[in-house]
């Protein structure tokens, strides 16, 4: 992996660790995060910035889906017709995506995998309050990405 991409990955992980202990945030924060990372590293070309954005969106969009499904599994939320993770996978499988989106998918999945790993770290706990927030955040993503 290219050193600058590895650096972006480590910075995204650090941002996610800091934020995940408090709450999950929206995509707007992840885009802001990528903008900050790009400003910290002005030599990064536009393509690397897009890839960092894709990873960041994977952390938050995919990570929220994973947390939503964990909340359902723990009984804090009622089961939906389809799991949140399956809805994200269906979205990613849409055939009408452009070349750039297709090229970004592995980075999106890498960010999502990073979020999943954090959910299984010691000390991470699901609570009813957290699940209520995750539900409201997931509902925003469902609307934003037309998942219904």
Quick synopsis:
The protein is built from six helices and no strands. It is mostly helical and 148 residues long.
Question: Structural class from helices and strands?
Answer: mainly alpha
Helical region count?
6
Q: Tell me the helix content.
A: over 70%
What does the radius of gyration come to? 15 Å
The run of helices and strands is HHHHHH
| End-to-end C-alpha gap | 36 Å
Please give the number of β-strands: 0
What does this structure look like?
This protein has six helices and no strands. It starts with a helix and ends with a helix. The longest helix is centred in the middle third of the chain and has 28 residues, at 46-73. The protein is mostly helical and 148 residues long. Helix 1 (3-20) packs parallel to helix 3, helix 2 runs antiparallel to helix 3 and helix 3 (46-73) packs antiparallel against helix 4. The protein has helices at residues 3-20, 27-40, 46-73, 84-92, 99-119, 128-144.
Fold blueprint:
Blueprint (H helix, E strand, L loop, with lengths): L2 H18 L6 H14 L5 H28 L10 H9 L6 H21 L8 H17 L4
Helix pairs in contact: 1-3, 1-5, 2-3, 3-4, 3-5, 3-6
Task: Give short descriptive properties of this protein.
148 residues; mainly alpha; 6 helices; 72% helix; 0% strand
């Amino acid at each position: 992996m290219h050193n600058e991409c590895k650096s972006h990955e480590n910075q995204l992980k650090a941002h996610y660790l800091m934020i995940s202990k408090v709450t999950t945030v929206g995509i707007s924060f992840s885009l802001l995060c990528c903008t900050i990372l790009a400003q910290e590293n002005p030599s990064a070309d536009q393509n690397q910035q897009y890839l960092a954005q894709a990873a960041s969106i994977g952390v938050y969009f995919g990570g929220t889906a994973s947390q939503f499904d964990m909340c359902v599994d723990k009984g804090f939320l009622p089961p939906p017709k389809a799991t949140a993770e399956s809805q994200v996978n269906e979205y990613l499988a849409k055939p009408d995506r452009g070349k750039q989106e297709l090229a970004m998918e592995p980075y999106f999945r890498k960010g999502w995998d990073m979020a999943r790993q954090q959910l299984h770290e010691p000390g991470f706990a699901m609570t009813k309050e957290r699940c209520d927030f995750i539900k409201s955040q997931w509902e925003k993503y469902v609307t934003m990405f037309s998942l219904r």
